[in-house]
Design goal:
The chain is 69% helix and 0% strand. The protein has one domain. The radius of gyration is 22 Å and the shape is elongated. The N and C termini lie far apart (45 Å).
Length: 226
Amino acid sequence: MTDSPTTEPSPQRESLASLLGGRKGAIDASLPPVAFVAGWLAADRSIAWGAGVAIAVSVLIGGFRLLRGDRARAVVVSLAAVVAAALIALHTGRAEDFFLIQLLSNVASALLWAASIVVRWPLLGVVVGFALGQKTRWRKDPELLRAYSRASWVWVFGQYTLRVLVYGSLWWAGQVVALGVARTVLSWPLVAVTIAVSGWVLYRTLPEGHPGLRHPRPAPALRADE
């Protein structure tokens, strides 16, 4: 009796969320804008009070993160962004301008991610490749390059462009409270959905039998007579 042929198990495909993470930072970043709106409303629409509360909350979050062992650089950058947003609102006298940096940063991100796909350096591949310690080896795999490119479009339209449309329309209309709500809803919940959908597109694009994100395989070399 002959042994039945054994089938090799298909490569295990880890979730994109486990590689990217980011939940903690997204939640922390949504708290100062909420604090700004709360302080602004509580003090009869005082931008100064709103700015002070937002900065105070950002300082508390930063102190907590430092105690937990987070990098000081990340904490300082987050605090600086809140201070800059507060100064802009104080300078213009428009509470909605507290969200102007967030609006502009999403415009820049949408353009940057789209450009990275066009020049065949999709940023999703850059980020995941960095997280896996691959440097640029993933670009030598044409199947991975194509998959990262398609999945990166989810980030362009499903996250950054959506935020620009929502934030931009609310900012133009001067809807401060709605901006605070949108800033919260379009932080970690949207990031989670974007990661899930882009992960689905990524693995859907990869052919059956591909060894996975951790094992890029270079394109086969052409023979001399080809």
